[in-house]
Amino acid sequence: MEALFLLIPLSVVVVLALVVVLWWAVAAGQFDDFEGPAHQILMDDDTPEQPEQLPQRSKDV
Amino acid sequence: MNTHAMPATAFEANAAAGCFHCDLPLRGASRFKVFVDGAEREMCCAGCAAIAETIVAGGLADYYRHRSAPGKRPEDSMPQWMRDLESFDLEAVQQSFVQRSDAGACRAELLLEGVNCPACMWLVEQRLKRLSGVSEVSVNYAAQRVRIGWADTQVRLSSILRTVADVGLRAHPFDAAHRTALRQKDQRRRLFELALAALGMMQVMMYAVPVYLSDAGDIAPEFEQLMRWASLLLTLPVVLVSARSFYSGAWRDLAHHRVGMDVPIALAIASAFGASVWATVAGRGEVYFDSLTMFVFLLLGARYLEAESHTRAVVAIERLSHPLPATATCVPRYPDSKQTRMVASAALVPGDTVLVGSGSAIPADGTIMEGTSEVNEALLSGEARPVPKRAGDAVVGGTLNAGSPLFVRISRVGADTVLAHIVRLADRALGEKPRFAQMADRIAGCFSLAVLILAAITALAWLSAGGELWFRNAISVLVVTCPCALALATPAALAAATGHLSGIGLLATRGHVLETFARVTDVVFDKTGTLTQNEMRVARIAPLGNLREEAILVLAAELELGSGHPVARALTAAARNPPGVLAVCATRLTHSAGEGIEGEVDGERLRIGTAAFVGALVDTPLPQSAFSEHSHSQVLLGRSGEWLARIDLDEALRPDAREALDALRAAGARIHVLSGDVPAAVHAIARELGVSEAANVLARATPQRKLEYVEALQRKGCVVAMVGDGINDAPVLAKAALSIAMGGGTDLARANADMVLLSGRLKALAEGLGVARTTRRVIGQNIAWAIGYNAIAVPLAMMGWISPWAAALGMSASSLIVVGNAARLQRGGT
Q1: In three state form, how does the secondary structure of B473-485 look?
Q2: Are B118 and B142 in contact (CB under 8 A)?
Q3: What pLDDT, in 10s, does the model give residues B29-45?
Q4: If DSSP codes are grouped into helix, strand and coil, which group holds residue B525?
Q5: Which residues in B lie closer than 8 A to residue A56 (C-beta atoms)?
């Protein structure tokens, strides 16, 4: 039972450590967007960029 | 002594040139004079004078004799940001966000930081209204913005900002980017506070459960004491950090001699924590750490949900102001040269030509000069399908070019654009507080006061009865009461519903819309432009010769096939449905503008068009039967020597008109149709729409008669919603309890209606009616729940039958229920 004298303070320390991790995660923006990342992984953005096209009937002078 | 006298004379000598207190140079004779040390001293400003007076009044005038440096100006002790307020008086700074009229009247939109509840906004409103020179104050809780109008000659912007600061809030000029950053900061703070409370709650519960489950004496006292200390340590951050907003809210209320809903909460948290700490240190008595952390967590959870639903509603409207691109591709010498140059969108002026690439947003309102494309106008209509556009068509800034590149000549920029009007209208609606919300605010205030009194009565009663439980029971009363249905859930419900409406293309421009819409019993439609669209449709084919109708239609369509005229579109559409034989286009076609078309089909010369134009070919008088009063629009078909047919055209109904009216009828609304058109046409349309009662249809109606019609309905006690095109029907619209304008076009600015149907889809009306009624029902449910819950819970808690943890659970569950109920409106719900 004496182990509790160690385990209970240890549990407090663990929770406080979690609080620090949580603070970091929130401040670093880990929770800013809950939806975007799920879609991002499906979006390919590796197609080469196309040069902008001008209208077909352009009548340059 | 000598050393003391010297500086005194030195400063006295300066006094002629500078402020006696801070030594800054005086500009001319000063208005601020204070009697110090036997002489009148001039001060540079009211602040210095106030400080000097305080010093003298405090018997500290010696300070001026002993000091070795000029005194601090009052501004020095102000935080940096408050000093910065002065810079808002500079014209150059104001230019970006203040609108000025000629008479020195200014208007600006300010963003408020630090708002926790509607009460803060109310306070700001009250304080600002009392400032002299302030002519208009309109606060918007959902967007946390305040719009103010003031006279520049009487009051300066910096003093307005300072008044806001006195209330404990910070005001910034509104600026979208800043706004987003603030919102993110706020969101992160809320999330962290919530998660911290959750962690604390879980772990404290771990320590509490063994004590609850074990029999007395099962746990050795030293372990119990250790767990209490551990709980104390973990509750500390929850109470200090997570519960901050409750203290600041309570403090703000008290500082202004009001009782808000945060006061009982803060009192409960502080006293329960204090008592628990005392019990822990003393080693006897009850601890409430578990109840406390749970209370804070669940309460924050409810507020988090409320804030999220608010944010979504605001974003739905703010989304409108975002899509303008920052830069535009200007074509300065169009059409001579197509050399492009990047410019800031804000720098565009009407008359500029820009190139809008595929997939990019149009930077301002304008007209297409060149190019054919499809434009996604979901922004206006909520309709995702792109609309085809070609040269000559108008485009709206912020809409997306989904097809090929376009050259657009800019016609309106900045505050004149359709988008800016929409945003202003939407803002106005959010700024006006509906009666629902005003009432809820008032009741919540009284309610909180009643809670405090009841808690005090409970404590006194139990104390005088000699019970040891007086503290526990008083805490229970404080905790168990739930004003959330009023103070949190009502504004949340209104904001969510407004967000939902704008999502379906129904823009509310006034605050009372949801309230009135829910009560509507009669919906009056104007026919032209509302039930019908600006497309023609074949109504009737009257053969004049011996050709059958199908053959006539095919002939007419073949003649008109190449034309883009509305009549031609109607004829070709009719010939294709049911599919006729449109094998060939007529040959040798000649178009006479405004008259008709001549062409050859199977070697026979035909004309279609006006009676005069066709008559010139036919060369016989038009038979009497060809005249009709049925329709205002008709074309004739004839060949040499013979009239073939008269084709009547009318306006096409909007495709969803029938469905929309059926839905409205199903919702219990009576439908009326008014029109200036001839009776036959109006009744035909009404029949087609299922409006069977002849009394509900009024033809040949002048604006005056339409007005009388609506007035007659209102005398009968009906709540009338008038749907019109917004401009021609303006007087009737103004008369109706709720006016709805069709706003598909760019005339939005002129339409002064309570609601604008941006999408042009009538079905949105039925959905909107549903949303409004649901909102009313949800608010009613919440209030009923709050009354029922409190009526049961408060007496129980006063009797001592509810322990603090059960009280915390009950109250928080109640909060979650009402806020969750309000959040349903966002998605539509039922």
Answers
A1: HHHHHHHHCCCHH
A2: no
A3: 666 677 777 777 777 65
A4: strand
A5: 404
B230, A12: Cβ pair inside 8 Å? Answer: yes
The neighbouring-strand residues paired with B134 are B150
Which burial class, exposed, middle or buried, applies to A13 when counting CB atoms under 10 A from its CB (0-12, 13-18, 19+)? exposed
Look at residue B234 in the predicted model and tell me its pLDDT. 93
Partner A, chain B 380-439, Cβ-Cβ below 8 Å: 404-407
Supply the pLDDT for residue B744: 55
B569-608 pLDDT, tens digit per residue, is: 777 777 776 555 555 567 777 777 667 788 887 778 888 8
Vertex B648 angle, CA B644 and B651, to 5°: 155
Question: A-B interface: how many C-beta pairs under 8 angstroms?
Answer: 71
Residues in chain B closer than 8 A to A51 (CB atoms): none
Contact, B108 vs B97, CB < 8 A? yes
Task: Report all structural domains of chain B as residue ranges with CATH numbers, in order of start.
Answer: 2-77 (no CATH), 80-174 (3.30.70.100), 183-317+432-493+778-827 (no CATH), 327-360+365-412 (2.70.150.10), 505-531+656-768 (3.40.50.1000), 532-653 (3.40.1110.10)
ipTM surpasses 0.85: no
CA atoms within a 13 Å half-sphere pointing along the CA-CB vector of B413: 17
Which residue type occupies B718? Answer: C
Please calculate the CA angle B466-B470-B472 and round it to the nearest 5 degrees: 145
Q: What are the tokens at B321?
A: 């102001």
CB burial readout B619-654, b (16+ within 10 A) else e: eeebeeeeeeebbebbbbbbbeeebbbbbbbbbbbb
**Between β-strands B587-592 and B596-601, what pairing exists: parallel, antiparallel or unpaired?**
antiparallel
Active site residues of B: 526
Is A22 in Cβ contact with B188 (below 8 Å)? no
Write phi, then psi, for B177 (nearest 5 degrees). Answer: -65, -45
Q: Identify which of B188, B203, B338 has the shortest CB distance to residue A26.
A: B188
B196 vs A11, A22, A29: nearest CB: A22
Q: Does B336 touch chain A (CB under 8 A)?
A: yes
Token reading at B693: 């009662």
Query: Of A1, A24, A26, A50, which to mutate for an interface test with B (greatest number of B Cβ within 10 Å)?
Result: A26
Q: Which whole-number Å values give the CA distances from B491 to B263, B394, B437, B477, in the listed order?
A: 20, 38, 6, 26
Q: Is B220 on the interface with A (CB under 8 A)?
A: yes
* A31 to B188: CB separation less than 8 angstroms, yes or no: yes
Q: What does pTM read for this prediction?
A: 0.59
> Taking residues A26-32, what's their average pLDDT?
83
Query: Which residue's structure tokens are 């998660």?
Result: B195
pLDDT confidence of residue B75 = 42
Q: What is the per-residue burial (b if ≥16 Cβ within 10 Å, else e) of B357-385?
A: bbebbbbbbbebbbbbbbbbbbbbbbbee
Q: Which residues of A touch B207 (CB under 8 A)?
A: 8
| Residue in the structure block whose two tokens are 């949340």 | B492
- Which stretches in chain B have pLDDT values below 50? 1-16, 72, 74-79, 745-746, 749, 828-830
CB-CB under 8 Å, A15 with B358: no
Residue numbers in B near A11 (CB within 8 A): 203, 206, 230
pLDDT single digits (tens) B772-827: 999 989 988 988 888 888 889 889 988 888 888 888 888 878 888 888 888 888 76
Identify the residue whose tokens are 């009950």: B810
Give the chain A residue whose CA is nearest to the CA of B191: A26
- Ordered strands of the B387-389 beta sheet: B387-389, B373-376, B400-401
Give the span between the Cα atoms of B560 and B571, in whole angstroms: 7
Cα nearest neighbour of A10 on chain B: B230
> CB A52 to CB B357 under 8 A?
yes
Report phi then psi at B694, rounded to 5.
Answer: -65, -25
